Amino acid sequence: QVQLVESGGGLVQLGGSLRLSCAASGILFSRYAMGWYRQAPGKQRDSVASISRLGTKIYADSVKGRFTISRDNAKNTMYLQMDSLKLEDTGVYYCDARNSNENYWGQGTQVTVSS
């Protein structure tokens, strides 16, 4: 059974930092590209950052220079370090794992940035 479990969300003040984790089980983690998505209230789910099997990273323009995606294949875990958080970073953050045949999603973790 494939599971992606996000953690690390919470309430943080404007300008603060959070580190999200996505722990995967039931898949050969190193063979999947991984990504973080964000869904704000009333909006669609958008890509925030992704990391390929080989470690190539892509970021949404809105988070470049503030967020850092990484993965630890030995721990089957992906991370998202979020710094200099803005109000518009508020939303539910989901992780996904995908290859050419499959796509799996976690249940999401809430991030709320307050002023």
Alpha carbon gap, first and last residue: 40 Å
Mean pLDDT: 97
What is the strand tally?
11
How many alpha or pi helices?
A: 0
Helix and strand pattern: EEEEEEEEEEE
Ranges where pLDDT stays below 50 over 5 or more residues in a row are none
* Helix share, percent: under 10%
Query: Which band does the percent of strand residues land in?
Result: over 45%
Tell me, briefly, the overall form. Answer: globular
Write down the Rg: 13 Å
Main sheet characteristics: 7 strands, mixed
**Class derived from helix and strand content:** mainly beta
Describe this structure as you would to a colleague.
Helices cover 0% and strands 55% of the residues. It is built from no helices and 11 strands. The chain has strands at 3-7, 10-13, 18-25, 33-39, 45-51, 57-59, 67-72, 77-82, 91-98, 103-105, 109-114.
